[in-house]
TrEMBL record:
GO terms for molecular function: ATP binding; proton-transporting ATPase activity, rotational mechanism. The lineage of its organism: Eukaryota, Viridiplantae, Streptophyta, Embryophyta, Tracheophyta. Residues 25-85 form the ATPase F1/V1/A1 complex alpha/beta subunit N-terminal domain. It comes from Gossypium klotzschianum. PANTHER family: H(+)-TRANSPORTING TWO-SECTOR ATPASE, V-TYPE PROTON ATPASE CATALYTIC SUBUNIT A. One of its GO terms (cellular component) is plant-type vacuole. InterPro entries: ATP_synth_asu-like_sf, ATPase_F1/V1/A1_a/bsu_N, ATPase_F1/V1/A1_a/bsu_N_sf, P-loop_NTPase, V-ATPase_asu. This is ATPase F1/V1/A1 complex alpha/beta subunit N-terminal domain-containing protein.
Length: 173
């Protein structure tokens, strides 16, 4: 999702389907109940409200979902949108993870502090967990055109010279 700097740091994509949204029915501290969530899955990652707050579905009942929001929920209102991602809450692994400092949902604290100019994490901030611009030594395995790769197969390694760590790079399951 794109970052929009100013009053709100992130916004929903215009192209997202209406069917991917539910709507807030109730807010009680960090817990939100949303309706219109038919087809959602337990532990699915969702984005709540206009600030795209990160949350996770912890209970399903009919077309209602109970969501644990991992950010401050002040300002959320009834009928605010809840966007389904169809993905579980997960972390990204790869070169660059060591030596970085993250919060509990793998947001890089140093990067956020630089971009926001504040030591506090702004609501709904969306920052890649790992730096995609840094170049790492990459050694592909002997894989030929037409070879079948499936989830979990090792296809390359990356050596981080300053740390002497060898990262295995595998196909996502």
């Amino acid at each position: 999702m794109p970052a929009v700097y100013g009053a709100r740091l992130t916004t929903f994509e215009d192209s997202e389907k209406e069917s991917e949204f539910g709507y807030v029915r109730k807010v009680s501290g960090p817990v939100v109940v949303a309706d219109g969530m038919a087809g959602a899955a337990m532990y699915e990652l969702v984005r709540v409200g206009h600030d795209n707050l990160i949350g996770e579905i912890i209970r399903l009942e009919g077309d209602s979902a109970t969501i644990q929001v991992y950010e401050e929920t002040a300002g959320l209102m009834v009928n605010d949108p809840v966007l389904r991602t169809h993905k579980p809450l997960s972390v990204e692994l790869g070169p660059g993870i060591l030596g970085n400092i993250f919060d509990g949902i793998q947001r890089p604290l140093k990067t956020i502090a630089k971009r926001s100019g504040d030591v506090y994490i702004p609501r709904g901030v969306s920052v890649p967990a790992l730096d995609k611009d840094t170049l790492w030594e990459f050694q592909p395995k002997r894989i030929g055109e037409g070879d079948l790769l499936t989830g979990g197969d090792l296809y390359a390694v990356s050596l981080v010279a300053m740390c002497c760590y060898l990262y295995s790079i595998v196909v996502v399951p």
